[in-house]
Design goal:
By secondary structure, the chain is mainly alpha-helical. Helix content is 75%, strand content 3%. It has one domain.
């Protein structure tokens, strides 16, 4: 069995969340202040498509992280190779953190499709 460092799995949700927020704010700011990504494609505004593609990419990456953390947690939950149970608990925290970040990204899809972007 290949063991993924739990620390890496724990940092992924935070890093993806920060990258998603930064990219989204940058895209919206460039659109509202400088007119970047004006226009439409297939009846949907280009800015919304751009935000949705950034969010979809983050969702895929975070979903993979949640899957890897859950799979590693299930593999170590029997206690073999983890005498203190610390790795098992850390992997559970990773899976929960990824799931919470997934909820944020689902909310971000709603924001990208419904909210008024420029005020």
């Amino acid at each position: 069995m290949i063991q993924v460092p739990a620390q890496r799995l724990l940092l992924v949700p935070l890093a993806l969340w920060m990258a998603h927020v930064a990219a989204s704010f940058t895209i919206v700011e460039a659109h509202c202040r400088h007119g970047v990504a004006d226009g439409q494609f297939a009846g949907i505004s280009a800015i919304r498509l751009l935000l949705l593609s950034v969010t979809a990419t983050a969702l895929l990456a975070l979903g993979g992280n949640a899957f890897a953390a859950t799979r590693a947690w299930l593999a170590t939950s029997d206690g073999e190779g983890d005498a203190t149970g610390a790795r098992t608990q850390l992997l559970l925290i990773c899976a929960v953190a990824s799931s919470i970040a997934l909820l944020y990204l689902i909310w971000a899809v709603t924001f990208a499709t419904e909210a008024r972007l420029c005020r």
